[in-house]
Design brief:
It is globular and about 60 Å long. 41% of the residues lie in helices and 9% in strands. With 332 residues, it is mainly α. The strands form five sheets. It has a two-stranded parallel ribbon. A two-stranded antiparallel sheet has the order 2-3. Strands 4-5 form a two-stranded antiparallel sheet. The protein is built from ten helices and ten strands. The longest helix is centred in the first third of the chain and has 26 residues, at 83-108. The model has no long low-confidence stretch (mean pLDDT 86).
Length: 332
């Protein structure tokens, strides 16, 4: 959805996702390059991914999904321990990473090709851990702005109360942007493959005795009523996020005006990755012209929108994926 890669069947020509291109640009200015979140967590697997973010070469970046762990990892800085203790913790992490890298390099020489590919993914993840440790060292003496966390709900489960869970994840995203811990976030609210936690959201949230994937294939008379109810529920959670952005301000005004928000799906009908239904919100200060339904020509690649979004936030790029040019009709 964010790479434009051709991942049909045995052909898997994936590439870096647009959020990671933006993350590289903004990483010098923020404590974390990006937050990669999803409701299921991890990466899933090739045809059933649980993350929206991909590193250069198309390798999936594991998503995080537990609100309390996300808060403690990114917002509490080791529970508020003194800088000297945090420095000791970073040194211990560095030693662990060095030991694992040494053992992995030795093991890789004795693996078959299939296992080598899996090891490459592991080493890529480990490399990102190593880079973040180095970043943590540079930001060690820079305090996070004070904030009030009393209204955060951090112990919610998507399998029990999906509405409250999704909104707690959005609350963390808003807080991260407000504090300028990062300027790039992806969040996969639900997978569409019938295997993730989102499969049960229609039943848990709306009392519909069918799963998400089943509804999408169903041709019964009440199909569109069920589908519409579920879409309204998803859109309601998205509206909650937008309202939080609208009512939260930083030094530049409401976050909504200075944040581009892309919401949507990679399917407009069953297994048909064409004619994506998308909402582009926010970004009034970036020249986005809102209040319109824009129908693109059938041959317009979604990468044109992603390229335009990069340009709107100040990332210079001549192209992205299979883009043919920016969408001048969206940005004034």
């Amino acid at each position: 959805w964010l790479t434009g890669g051709d991942v049909r069947g045995s052909r898997y020509d994936n590439s870096v996702s647009v959020d990671q291109v933006a993350a590289r640009h903004f990483s010098r200015s923020t404590r974390y390059p990006s937050l990669v979140l999803s409701t299921d967590g991890g990466v899933g697997y090739r045809s059933r991914v649980a993350t929206l973010s991909f590193a250069p070469g198309g390798k999936p970046i594991p998503a995080e999904h537990k609100p309390r762990q996300i808060f403690e990892r990114y917002f509490s800085l080791s529970g508020g321990e003194a800088t000297v203790e945090r420095r000791r913790q970073l040194e211990r992490k560095k030693k662990i990473v060095d030991l694992v890298l040494e053992d992995a390099s030795d093991l890789q020489r004795r693996l078959g090709q299939g296992d080598r590919n899996r090891m490459d993914q592991f080493l890529t993840s480990l490399s990102s851990v190593e880079e973040q440790i180095q970043r943590d060292e540079r930001w060690l003496s820079v305090p996070i702005k004070s904030f009030d966390a009393k209204d955060l709900e951090l112990d919610l489960l998507a399998s029990v109360d999906p509405t409250a869970y999704i909104r707690s994840m959005f609350d963390l995203v808003v807080l991260g942007l407000e504090l300028d811990l990062t300027r790039v976030v992806t969040y996969m609210m639900a997978r569409e493959d019938g295997m993730g936690l989102g499969e049960n959201f229609p039943k848990l949230a709306l009392g519909i005795n069918k799963g998400h994937h089943t509804i999408s294939h169903d041709l019964a008379d009440n199909h569109w009523q069920e589908w519409g109810s579920y879409d309204r529920w998803l859109a309601g959670n998205f509206a909650y996020f937008l309202e939080r952005l609208r009512t939260t301000e930083d030094g530049f005004g409401p976050l909504m005006d200075n944040t581009l928000v892309l919401y949507g799906s990679a399917c407009s009908s069953t297994h048909n990755a064409q004619n994506y239904p998308l909402v582009l919100a926010g970004g009034a200060a970036m020249g986005v012209r809102h209040g319109r339904l824009v129908r693109m020509r059938e041959e317009t690649p979604m990468a044109n929108l992603l390229l335009s979004m990069l340009g709107a936030v100040g990332v210079e790029a001549a192209s992205f994926s299979d883009s043919t040019g920016p969408l001048t009709e969206l940005f004034g």
